[in-house]
Amino acid sequence: MKKRKFTASVSREGKWYVVQCLEIDVASQGRSESVALKNLADAISLHFTLPVATTAPKVRPLEVMVRAA
Fold it and tell me: pTM of the prediction?
């Protein structure tokens, strides 16, 4: 394991703090800024953890209605 530094964008939405890693597409939230940042750190750590499948995953098509950007 190796420590890496990341940058987090922190904003408040109502009672929640929303944090997003600027280097990778990972985000989290929490009721306080420190909890949100800890949750983001946990999410980033999981992002870099290699998956270990115990059974073969099913792959399914998925259609979703989205608004045009």
Answer: 0.74
